[in-house]
Amino acid sequence: MNKINFYENFDKILKNKKIKLVPLTLAISLLGGCGYKEKADKMESHVMTSYTNFISEFYRKKNTLDCYFEQWGFEYEGLGENYYRIKKDCKNNIIYCASLDEFKNYVDIKNPTFDDIRNLLAQNSNISGEYQEWLLEGINNLEENAPDLELVALYYNLKRISIVEKTTKEIVEKIGTSGAYFKVETGEVVINPETVSRYTLCHEILGHGISDIEIDSNGTTVHYMPNCKALYVNLDTAEYKGENIGLSLEEGKADLISDIATNCTSGGPYDAQAEQLRIFNEVTNTSLADFANNGVIGLINNMKKSDIDNPLIYISNVDCLLEATRKINLDIPTEYTIKHNIVEFFKDFADDKVENGTDKEEIKETISKVLAHSNYIWINAGETFVFDSVSVETLKQESLSNIDKLDNNKQLIK
To answer: Most buried in the list 29, 151, 253, 293, measured by CB within 10 Å?
Structure first.
C-alpha cells in the first residue's frame, strides 16, 4: 500500500488553490429536496468542524517540523514517507547539493573533458607508478564505454587526491573492513599496498571520485554525493533519526564504474548492491551517468514516474542488507534479502500497470529482459563472506509468477 505524506500533499493543494468547499445545505437540498435541510445543516457543521480541525492540525505539525529543523540548524526538503533531505547544515556551514548540476554553480571549470582528466592525473605527483598506469587505462576505458559521464567531480578530486598506504589492521580499525577507502573531506585514498588491486583502486578513485566531491567555496563547504543525508521525523510517534539514504547504492555505483574501467565482468565486493542498482536503473530508464549526476533523489523521482509506489523502501532494504553484512549478521531479516527486495520491487512496478489495463505479458517481457542483462548467475551479498545469495533464474521465476497472480485490484490472487 502506498504511504503518502498527507501533510506535504495538502500543502501543495493549498498553494495551488484547488480546494473549493460547496455548502452541503445547498448540495443536499438540491439532490434530496428541502426536507433534507436539517440533516444537511448538521452534516455541514460536522464537516466544517472536521475541516477546521484538520487545517489546525496540519499547520501545527508543519510549524512544529519547521521549529525542529530550525533548532537542529538544518534547511530541508521533503522526500515523502516522513523522510526529509538535508539541504544545508547551517551550524557547520555545509551545503549538500542535490545534483552535480547544482554543484557546478560553485566551481569555475564546469565541463572538463577526458583530456583534462588525463592531464591532471599526469600532473598529480601523489599518484605514480602502477597506480597511475591503472587509472590512466581506467580513464581511457570510461571514455570509450561511458562517454556520457560527467567529469566535474573527478576533475576537482584529482586536483587534491593523494594515496596513503596503511596496513590491513589500520584500515580495519578505521572502517571495520579490510580493503580501501576514499576520504572525500581530504582527498586521501587509503590502501594497503600489499593487497590493493587495479579493481580496488579504480573503485575508490574513479568509482567514488566521479561523483563524491567536497570543496570549499568562499568559506562554505559544498558537498555532492549520490547518497543522501536525511532525517526521518514522525511527529505522531515522536520518532526521529538520521540516515544516509542510498549509501549502499553509491558502493554499487562505484563497482559498476570500476567494472567499466577495468573491463571486469565478474563483479566486485558489492555484487548485491551493484546488481540491485542496475535493476532499479534499467526498470526506470535511469542510466549509470544519470545516477552519478542526480543520485538517489533522481532515482526516487524516476521510480515514482515508473509506477513504483514505495521507492524509499527498496533503497532502504539495500542499505540495511549492506549494514547487516558489515556487522557479520548471519540472520538477515527477510525483507532485506536480495530475493524479497527485487521480487517486491517488480510487483510494485507491475501492479499499477495491471490495474490500468496493461497486458501482463508485456510487463513480464520487460522484467525478463532486465534480468537477462545480468552478468551474474548467482547474486551474492558480502564483501568477504557470503551472507545472502539468490540465482537470477529464481528472481525471474518468482517475479513472473507474481505478475500472473495479480488481479485488477493490485492484489495477489491466492
So the answer is: 253
Dihedral angle sign, alpha carbons of residues 191, 196, 197, 203: negative
Q: What values do phi and psi take at 408, rounded to 5?
A: -75, 0
Helix or strand run (H / E) with residue 238:
none
CA distance 52 to 21: 12
DSSP string, 211-243: T-EEEEETTEEEEE-SSEEEEEEETTTTEEEEE
Q: Which residue has the cell 582527498?
A: 187
The H or E element containing residue 75 is: strand 74-80
Which amino acid is residue 347, in one-letter code?
K
Q: Which three cell numbers stand for residue 258?
A: 570500476
**CA–CA separation, 347 and 345 (whole Å):** 5
Contacts of 375 (CB under 8 A, 6+ apart): 265, 266, 267
For residues 385 and 414, which has the higher predicted lDDT (pLDDT)?
A: 385
Q: How far apart are alpha carbons 195 and 209 in whole angstroms? A: 21
Q: What confidence tens digit (pLDDT) does each residue in 87-133 have?
A: 999 999 999 999 999 999 999 999 999 999 999 999 999 999 999 99
226 exposure class (CB count in 10 Å sphere: 0-12, 13-18, 19+): buried
**Separation of alpha carbons 45 and 256, rounded Å:** 60
d(CA 218, CA 105): 13
Please state whether the predicted TM-score (pTM) of the whole model is above 0.85.
no
The stretch 278-288 carries a mean pLDDT of: 98
> pLDDT band at residue 282, thresholds of 50, 70 and 90?
very high
Give 205's DSSP letter.
I
Tally the C-alpha atoms within 13 A of residue 350's C-alpha that lie toward its C-beta: 28
Reduced to 3 states, what is the DSSP secondary structure of residue 280? helix
Residue 344 CA to residue 393 CA, distance in Å, equals 16
The answer to whether 51 and 21 have CB atoms below 8 angstroms apart is yes
SS (H, E, C) 307-346: CCCCHHHHHHHHHHHHHHHHCCCCCCCHHHCHHHHHHHHH
Summarised one tens digit per residue, pLDDT across range 341-381 is 999 999 999 999 999 999 999 999 999 999 999 999 999 99
Cα(172)–Cα(181) distance, rounded to whole angstroms?
A: 10
